[in-house]
Automatic annotation (TrEMBL):
One of its GO terms (cellular component) is plasma membrane. Belongs to the GtrA family. It comes from the Bacteria. This is GtrA/DPMS transmembrane domain-containing protein. The lineage of its organism: Bacteria, Pseudomonadati, Pseudomonadota, Betaproteobacteria, Rhodocyclales. Residues 21-134 form the GtrA/DPMS transmembrane domain. It comes from Thauera linaloolentis (strain DSM 12138 / JCM 21573 / CCUG 41526 / CIP 105981 / IAM 15112 / NBRC 102519 / 47Lol). PANTHER family: PROPHAGE BACTOPRENOL-LINKED GLUCOSE TRANSLOCASE HOMOLOG. It is a multi-pass membrane protein.
């Protein structure tokens, strides 16, 4: 059977594999974030400090999961890691600002504010990872 006569169903299933792997890897990193945040809140830290520390812990767990598992990237770490750190800085800022709005003026409890924030930041991260961090086409265009 040649590629032209192949069924479109496997292609459409394949289109959901990367987002599914991203969700699993990101979910594991989010659990690290939430665990750290919960421990810090229980220890008496402020919600903003706790979510910031949680985001940093989650980011550290997330890079190898996304690089190897979700994106199965061949991008060299010397190029992908700085891009990942830049995307983390942007995601951290988005996390902090959105959490501040939801927990502050919107008066959502910390867990609900973080749930809303995590969903929005996950969508941002997927776009950044796919187009900037683990995109081998971008990697090939970057001078060595």
């Amino acid at each position: 059977m040649n590629a032209a006569s192949a069924s479109p169903v496997p292609s459409s299933i394949a289109a959901f594999r990367r987002p599914a792997r991203f969700a699993v890897a990101g979910g594991a990193a989010t659990l690290v974030h939430w665990l750290c945040m919960s421990v810090m809140l229980a220890a008496g830290s402020g919600a903003h400090v706790a979510t910031t520390a949680g985001a940093m812990a989650g980011a550290a767990a997330n890079y190898p999961l996304q690089h190897r598992h979700a994106f199965a990237s061949n991008a060299a770490h010397r190029r992908a890691l700085p891009r990942y750190l830049a995307s983390c800085a942007l995601a951290w800022l988005a996390n902090l600002l959105l959490f501040a709005v939801l927990h502050g003026p919107a008066d959502w409890p910390p867990a609900l504010a973080q749930a809303g924030t995590s969903g929005a930041v996950a969508a941002l991260n997927y776009l950044l990872y796919a187009r900037m961090v683990f995109d081998e086409a971008t990697d090939a265009q970057t001078p060595a």
